[in-house]
Each structure stands twice: as C-alpha cells, then as structure tokens.
Design a protein that fits this description.
Strand content: 15-25%
Helix content: 25-40%
Strand order of the largest sheet: 21-22-23-24-27-26-25
Radius of gyration: 24 Å
Number of domains: 3
CATH topology of the largest domain: Aconitase, domain 3
Number of strands: 27
Number of helices: 22
Distance between the termini: 34 Å
Largest sheet: 7 strands, mixed, barrel
Length: about 650
C-alpha cells in the first residue's frame, strides 16, 4: 500500500474499497480561515450542535486583515465569539497564515485534515492527508460527520539526487506542473518518494504540497521520516511524531522521476501556474514589483534565505519589494537574528503576517507591471490589477531579481542552505481557547454585526423547468473569475451583497440578468469549457450562483472541490455527453428539461432541449447516490 491508501483505510467509515469509489472517511482536524470561516461557522450553527466534535478545529484569521470599514472587523468578532462558544481554537489576526501555523503547531503525521482553503494540502509536508474543501463540508466534519471523496488514484513522484544552490522546492513543484498541468488530474493524489526525499526539509516539502493544489489533485504528501521527527521535536511536539512510509512503489498509477541535481530555476508565466518556463529564458526582463511570502514560501527557511542573499546589497531603485512572513514565530526569529534589519536596510517593505498580496487584498501592481511573486497563483487580475503580468518564482529567484532589477538566475548569488534550528521559539499566546478546545463555553454570547448574514436556503430540485443559458464561458475559468476576491472579500458573510459580483471579471451584467431570470421563474444554467472551477475552494462560487437561481452547470469538465460545492448547494454539475454540443449553445438560449428528478434518482443521463437552437443534447451527472440525494433535497443542509 502507498501512504494515501494506508491513511484512507485507517480512517474509512463506509463506502468504497479502491480507486474511483466514493468513500466516507473520519476527519481528525479541521481548519477555517476568515474569508471562508464565517459562512462555515454559520452553517455549523444551523446544524444545531452544541460543540465541535472533531479532535481539533482551528479558526484562523489571515485573509481579511486589512480593515477598511467595519465588515472585516465584524467577521473577526463573530469568529472569535463562535469559537469560544463551540470549542474551536481561535488564531488572532497577526498570528500568521493558517497553513504555516498549522504545520508548526498542530499538524500530525497520519492524521486527516480538511480546511476551507484549497491550499490545506500544505499539511502533506509532514505526512498528513490534508485536503481543501468547501466550508459546509468542514462544518459537517467539525460536527463529527464524515467527509466524502472518491478514493483517489496515486501518482508517485520519485525524487533522486539533491538540489544545487539557488534551486529550491518551488522549482520542484513547477517541474511537476510542467509534467502534469493544471487540468485532467481530478481524482488523483501525488505522493513523493525515493532517496531524494531525505534531502528536503519540512518547509520545502510543505511548499511542494501547497502548490500541488494547482495540479487539481485531491492532495499531495510526503512520508513521515527522521526529518519530520526532527522538525516536530524542534517545535516542542516530538510526541506527535510517528513514522509513515509506502510499502513500495507498486501502488502508483503513474511514476514520474525527478533528478533534483539536474533541476534549473523555473517560473510560471502569466496567467496560469501551469505555464512553466525556465528563468534563463526570461532573464533580463524588466521587473517592477517583487512580492515574497504567502502560504507557499513564507517559512523561516525561505525568508532567511532571502535576507542572506540581500545582506550588504540594495534592492534596485525602481523595483518595489514586499515581504510577508508566514507566522509570528518566523517574524520573531528573523527579528532576534537581526535579519529584519537586513531586509529593511536593503529597501524591502515589511508586510503583515497574512495572505494579503496573494489574494489581491493589498499591494496590487501598477498598470502593465511585471510582478514576480512567490505565492501559488497568477490568474489574470488575481493580483488586483488586470493588466499586470505576474510570474511565480522561488524566493531565491525573487531575491536575485530584486538586486538586479530584472529577472535573474539566482545560482550565481546563491547562499548556503539555511539549517533548521534545534528549537523554534514557541509562543502560543495568540491561539485563544486552547483550554476549552472541543468543549467550548456553553451560553457564551455570539457577536453578530450587521454584515453577518444568513445561510441561503436551498429548495428541492424540480422535475421539469424552463431555463436560460445565463452565461457561456471558456476553459480554465477559476473561482476567482466566478467570485472575485480582493476588494470583494469583505462581503463573504453577506450572500445577497456578495452575489452582486458573481462573474464580475468576466461579465459584470451577469448578476442583473440572472436575478431577472430567476424572478420570472426560470432556472439559470452556466455553460462552461474545460476545468471549470479550478483554483480556490471558495464555496461562494456555488452558493452565490445558487442564490441567483443557478441549478445546473454544464461543462466539458469540472474540478473536484468546485464540483463538491455545487452538489452541496443543490446545483447539478454536468458534463457534455458530446463536447461538440458546447459549440452549439449560445448565451441567452432558452433551454427546457423534464424528467430531471427521475434521471437523477436512476443515475441516467439528462436530456435537455435548446429551444432557441431547436436541438436536444445529453449531459451526464457523474455522481454517487449520496450526491444525487443531496441535490434532490436542495443541498447538503436541506438533506441533513
């Protein structure tokens, strides 16, 4: 057995016994962040439970920390009060980014973790089966319910050799993305093995697992070995360690070997993490902005490497450089060693320990700027500036380019590898309610500001309906396209307000047209190309369309987390039986359907009629019996 199969087997509650079969698994740990957590806890409240039932639930505040207006601060007050009431641990603003913090203070090899953030697989760096999910799935798991996935196939990535100076973990995952791309990997997990694994420290492994989310896989993970043990002991958590390794390499559906010694610095060019080029091929290109940090590359190892590379040097005069540590622990270590002074003297801006620039919440580039960033996504306009050209690079490439003012190969200015400390400084004072975790304070007041809305209620799926193709989009439409982040994030707990911005980057008129269609009693249908819904786990990309009357998404293919979110909110995720039908449907076409409930109940294809075009087309809903029941009931909350 490989590691993935071992963990799933140990946590199996019911269901499948092998790849492709739906399996219900027990979840040990849950995490939320403030951009998705408010709705997740509102959903948890609506279930009527008295406390958190999972082993551990942590509510992190790391996304909406720029508090312009009352909305974000009100969300934080709600999250702190609801954590106290129900027995979750609350991580205060300024404590750090959820994935970095969870790796440092809570992650345990062999455990299962789901989080309402797509980069939760960061936990795979210490051998967890860590998965991103919609907030409502996390709410159910916090309540003790199982999490449903299709038992994944496992891709084995065999690592040999060791990285040369100036080449790092970011280049490893970019190499994997160059091989497998960002689509076509639904239902798979990536597991790393081989002699090269031992040469990578835990922060490097976490970076690789973090950006595995861009592959579209369920999760990524490494073995739990001596390196893992030393990391946990340095965090004062040696008792959490246990060894975990595959039995052999026969349990993989595919094996990709990477010689770490032969890797060169890589970059993801605009506008996709899968658009991989060598740094040497773009060397000399003028750079306007460099952002270092995010949950991908904000560890002590990463930021200290940058500081050592900048020591005694200055950032090029026409380049803006911002640096965000992943946690207060990292920030303190750099301060204690005088490395913050090094960064400041070099001309860097020191940013808050938060997601910030990665989600377009601040530090947006100027018009037409070239921005090098160490985060994980470079979708068009995600930075907050639609015309910006964002390249994803390693901290080493970012630092070398900051000095040169142009894209630069880091190998000539590389520094010695940063050694892991024997003991990290531990200060958990910004984790509140650890002493009441899992118990809570019954009767504690829950604070609800005016921006704290209600969970929209779903309705049973109709058997027959008249509909309209409310929008038609192309390939690789991300959840950023469906529900923009940045300045719109503060409306996450207010669905009617947030719904005004559905598809805003693609078609700002969608909200008004969809709402008008809904008010006439028609169903709205979304027509899409390949890899629809890739990117963030944000369930609002399903919830807000549901609020606007969307009940059907017909696409060439749909990504895993978004597909699950559509089901959870009573929307049928369908694929074309004949992909040529995508070209025949026009936006605004009238569509009719009958016998839909019967087709769902029986697991058969659904036949739709394009009234405008005068033809019928068939769509397939590849769903488990449980998912079909959920949709028929009107969504997960309605089916509980």
């Amino acid at each position: 057995m490989n590691i993935v199969d071992k963990i799933i087997s140990a946590h199996r509650v019911s269901g499948g016994n092998g790849p492709g079969e739906e399996v219900a698994i027990r979840i040990d740990q849950c995490l939320t962040q403030d951009a998705t957590g408010t709705m997740a806890y509102l959903q948890f409240e609506s279930m009527g439970l008295d406390r958190v039932k999972a082993e551990l639930a942590v509510s992190y505040v790391d996304h909406n920390t720029v508090q312009v207006g009352f909305e974000n601060a009100d969300d934080h007050d709600y999250l702190q009060s609801v954590a106290k009431r129900y027995g979750a641990i609350y991580s205060k603003p300024g404590n750090g980014i959820c994935h970095q913090l969870h790796l440092e203070r809570f992650g345990v090899p062999g455990k299962t973790l789901i989080g309402s953030d797509s980069h939760t697989p960061t936990g795979g760096g210490i051998g967890m089966l860590a998965m991103g999910a919609g907030g409502i799935d996390v709410a159910v798991a916090m309540g003790g319910g199982p999490f449903y996935i299709k038992w994944p196939e496992t891709i084995g990535v065999r690592l040999v050799g060791s990285l040369r100076p100036g080449v790092s973990a970011k280049d490893v995952i970019l190499k994997v993305l160059a091989r497998y791309g960002t689509k076509g990997n639904v239902g798979k997990v990536v597991e790393y093995f081989g002699p090269g694994v031992a040469t990578l420290d835990v922060p490097s492994r976490a970076t690789i697992c973090n950006m595995g989310a861009e592959l579209g896989v369920t999760s990524s993970l490494f073995p739990s070995d001596e390196t893992t043990r030393l990391f946990l002991e340095a965090q004062g958590r040696g008792g959490d360690w246990s060894p975990l390794a595959p039995d052999g390499d026969s349990g993989y559906c595919d094996v990709f070997e990477i010689d770490l010694s032969a890797l060169e610095p890589l970059a993801a060019a605009p506008h996709s993490p899968g658009n991989i080029v060598s740094v040497s091929s773009i060397a000399g290109m003028k750079v306007n902005q460099i952002m270092i940090g995010s949950c991908t590359n904000s560890s002590y190892r990463d930021i200290k490497t940058v500081a050592k590379m900048l020591e005694g040097r200055r950032v090029a005069q026409d380049v803006e450089v911002g640096i965000a540590c992943g946690s207060r622990q990292v920030f303190k270590m750099l301060a204690d060693e005088g490395l913050l002074s090094t960064l400041i003297a070099a001309g860097c801006r020191i940013l808050e320990n938060a997601c910030g620039f990665c989600i377009g919440a601040h530090m947006s580039p100027s018009t037409n700027a070239v921005s090098l960033r160490t985060n994980n996504r470079n979708f068009e306009a995600r930075s907050g500036t639609k015309s910006a050209q964002v390249y994803l690079v390693s901290p080493e490439t970012a630092a070398a380019s900051a000095i040169a003012g142009v894209v630069a190969d880091p190998r000539p200015v590389a520094v010695a590898p940063v050694a892991m400390p024997e003991r990290f400084p531990i200060d958990d004072s910004m984790f509140l309610y650890r002493d009441t975790a899992g118990v809570g304070v019954p009767g504690a007041e829950i604070v609800r500001g005016p921006n704290i809305g209600k969970v929209p209620a779903g309705t049973p799926f109709p058997d027959a309906f008249d509909a309209v193709a409310a929008i038609k989009v192309g390939d690789k439409v991300t959840t950023d396209h469906i529900m923009p982040a940045g300045a719109r994030l503060k409306f996450r707990s207010n669905v009617p307000q947030y719904a005004k911005y559905v598809f805003e980057p693609v078609d700002p008129t969608f909200h008004d047209r969809a709402l008008a269609s809904k008010e006439t009693g028609k169903v709205n249908v979304i027509v899409a190309g390949e890899s629809y819904g890739q990117g963030s786990s944000r369930e609002h990309a399903a919830m807000c369309p549901m609020y606007l009357g969307v009940r059907l998404v017909v696409a060439k293919s749909i990504e895993r987390i978004h597909k699950a979110n559509l089901v959870n909110f009573g929307i049928i995720p369908c694929t074309f039986a004949d992909q040529k039908d995508y070209d025949r449907i026009g936006m605004g076409d009238e569509i009719s359907a009958s016998g839909v409930r019967q087709a769902l109940e029986g697991g058969s294809d659904i036949v739709l009629r394009d009234v405008t075009g005068g033809f019928e087309f068939t769509v397939r809903a590849d769903l488990s019996p449980r998912e079909r029941r959920t949709i028929l009931a009107g969504g997960l909350l309605a089916s509980l």
